[in-house]
Amino acid sequence: xxxxxxxxxxxxIASKVYDGIRTIVKGSRIGIIRTAAEDAxxxxxxxxxxxxxxxxxxxxxxxxxxxxxxxxxxxxxGMENTDGIVLMGFKHLDLEQVYASLPAEKDIEGMCxxxxxxxxxxxxxxxxxxxxxxxxxxxxxxxxxxxxxKDVCVxxxxxxxxxxxATMLLNRNATVSVCHxxxxxxxxxxxxxxxxxxxxxxxxxxxxxxxxENAFVIDCGMNRVDGKIVGDADFEGLARKCSYITxxxxxxxxxxxxMLFSNLAKLKKAN
Length: 271
Prior knowledge:
Largest sheet: 6 strands, parallel
Oligomer: single chain
Number of helices: 10
Order of helices and strands: EHEHEHEHHHEHEHEEEEHEH
């Protein structure tokens, strides 16, 4: 029987991140502006818990599920005494307009046009970057995986994950295929990839037969099934086929949250 893959401990990686920034962010104050959506409520709880561990104060504003852009702007304007702001649950609004309303010096999600511009120019190392892509890159670095010349398949083309992640991978000389619901032959891309990164929001979407032997699988999915949190990958099957794999929970998620505070540390240094 084949040995299990290297199962990556995201909590351990996040702990390392926190140890490196603790003295920089201590005493900071962040603003959380969210909707009443359940996922936004849960994520806000995770952020507040970790903020407390880092001795960071949180100011939280909860808006309705159908809040307007002006209400979000008003909430942002009410956060003038914070060092950073995180926005959660505003999928019903134009994200470009939402983040255009956020001052770059408070953007700890790395989503404003200024920070994305630095990312695309490969000049982002001291600037905030989108948290999930940053988490994926940190995980890859944690196991000293060399991306140069490797084939990487990203199954997600959103402005929050897929697009910035593809840029970060290209900046490291990987050959990147970005796949999505309109991709005609997904299996071709996944089966030929050295690294498969999946974030589609469908439990069990990435099956064992979709990847090659010794592939590196990074699961960015987070789904609730029968009261349990599961990812997009068939973890049990893939763990016996891959070289490395991230579990859900305990994989990409904790590292993503740590990247939010890493971005705060970058802003504190810059300001």
